[in-house]
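Provenance and format

Records in this collection were gathered into a single text stream. Each protein contributes a sequence line and a token line. The two records reproduced below are adjacent in the stream.
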Amino acid sequence: MTNKLKISQILDYLDEIYPNVACELNYQKDYELVIAVMLSAQTTDTSVNAVTAHLFLHYPTLESLANAKLEDIENEIHSIGLYKNKAKNIIGIAQTLIKKFNGVIPSDKDLLQELPGIGNKSAGVVRAEIFKIPDLPVDTHILRISKRFNLVNKDADPYEVEQKLKKLIDEERWIKTHHQLIHFGRYFCTAKKPACESCKLAHLCHK
């Protein structure tokens, strides 16, 4: 079966089980999303939402975050992984946004990656969520699913998977598919106990 035919079946099934999905990170201001996305590396969205609820209450502005003491930010987010480095990134993001971008989130992918802790994937998430710019950033769930369906080589890295999926999927549905694949991997095609017995795509899977 060709990858194009596989993708057609996969997308039809995703539309069936996840017709309306969105980003699960909570935020009210654009810079809060940037920080939440950075914090979500190697950590669940649920854990991030738990710490940002208190963080953004105690530090309600970019300026308050930029001027915060590192130890205080560490205490705010100590329950999530890599919290020491992420605390530095929070302050660094706030300071960089103020000094270089007048407090405004840039839409350019290269400029976004000038923010501490923001790489290609995170920049893609921010662009898609805030600016609705078509992108298909690949996280651990999308990476796993793409390899299970044999859409990419087993040793493909996230950037290679992103480029392959963008060739197979129409640009106008990149953002939607990104969210659908994350939900599919997070709640259905999980790493340890995927629901293979009830999956209509089991015939495509090479788990």
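Adjacent record:
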Amino acid sequence: MEATKKGAKQPRVIPGFGVSLGVTVAMLSLVVLIPFAALAVNALKLSPGEFWSVITQDRVLSSFAVSLETSAVAACVNMVMGLILAWVLVRYDFPGKKVMNGMIELPFALPTAVAGISLTSLTSENGAIGKFFAMFGIRIAYTKAGIVFALIFVGIPFVVRAVMPVLEKFDSSFEEAASVMGATRVGIFFKVILPELLPSLLTGTGLAFGRGLGEYGSVVFIAGNKPYETEIAPLIIMSKLQQFDYTAACSIGLVMLLASFLLLFLMNLVQVRNTKILRGGEA
């Protein structure tokens, strides 16, 4: 006897789909869609020529370049260091492991302004880290290096938390089989382990990059805010708001929003492609 007939409705784990969907759409609209729509509406009050004039000002373009450049560098560093941290936390047992694992979440819990002040005091020429590098003529605070330093701090949890679950579920028998067949440790990592970690690693790196694009609190102090040098796009938006130029602020914000949407779209493409590959392998 067949357990279920073809086309028969399956019982829902959580009943009330219509109500649940309505609540979900309402919350999504209030928290995400309506604010974004308001941003777009305010930006579109300008004519296409005026909008283009606002977002192509030299100072605005420079801030876009600074935000993109520093976020990309920080994301690349976080990709490598986050993978190493996740590897250590999953594969090894050592004293203080639970404390270190908990500290990974610190950038999420710490107010960004507090993080910015702390990082600035550490990396300034009188700080513990900045003083050491100053002996070699290297400045960190009030430079792009300082911005990257801050973005590494706020972005590394995304990579670690994205990679750790995949590492925890990884079957070590694949490594043993590759080792028996004569593969070196480097070969095992790059040909066996890394392909499994790559989708989650790219996802975490993309999230860290997106966080860096919009980061303000932890960067504004350490950047120094020098026009055309260390001025980030969120700071330009804040300065426009302080000047009550809401349409210009919304126009710049809309560009940042579109960049974030594009990043999320690319991340979803990677996840969909990985899912298809996995299903093809299982078949």
